[in-house]
């Protein structure tokens, strides 16, 4: 005798949304949406808007890529940011290595001196370098007084002065970035290599440097992006003739009141930073794969 089994339809399983998991992220997300995403969206829309009629247009972008002075400012920004990134990383690396490995009682003092520049404002530090580097500053006055030179050296109002000032301003960030990476390297690896006969230089070259690649890339990226968006130091140490993207955006907004063109400049600057961050992250991952980190 055949039997017929009746089965009641099962109710679809309800997937509960994990509110508790995302609850701590709600406030930071709201702040980012209000004070970062919304202004960036407005700026992006403003770059496609005609200044007079308010209609959609690509004229500001065409003007940007057709203006030789603006493109020269963009190239100047890239060169300046690259030099600052390299200078910050080279100067910060030995200091961060000392802080990561030293057990001396002077370590705390050296660490305080390393981050001391951040205790003063950017404008104050930049004015300090202006006093040192200008034509009648400390360096030129000392060289002229000792008879080494007869005319002041061009140490300010140019690329050299801006790179020196920005390197001093951004150096603490490079030290902190590299310090975190170097502290993650096991000191026993270096001790083992030295016990097996490796010199100190060989240990640094074959062990410390490869293992600290993530910190080096992070320092380069942080210094590059901070230098590219810096305004006060290029404006004070570079003078009116040394124009970078940040100072040009300031001029377009306050002097020429051309918000659309200023938005285009800001968007190009943001795109340049995003591209550099993407290239840096890809380079870091490839180096880690190559070095089997």
UniProtKB/TrEMBL annotation:
Predominant localisation class: membrane
Ranges where the ABC transmembrane type-1 domain occurs: 74-280
Cell compartment(s), UniProt: Cell membrane
Biological-process GO terms, alphabetical: transmembrane transport
TM spans (from-to): 21-49, 69-96, 108-132, 159-182, 203-233, 253-280
Domain of life per record: Bacteria
InterPro entries: MetI-like (IPR000515), MetI-like_sf (IPR035906)
GO cellular component terms, semicolon-separated: plasma membrane
Keywords (A to Z) from UniProt: Cell membrane, Membrane, Transmembrane, Transmembrane helix, Transport
PROSITE patterns recorded: ABC_TM1
Membrane topology of this protein: Multi-pass membrane protein
Family stated for the protein in its record: Belongs to the binding-protein-dependent transport system permease family. CysTW subfamily.
Name recorded for this polypeptide: Spermidine/putrescine ABC transporter permease protein
The species this protein was found in: Rhizobium gallicum bv. gallicum R602sp
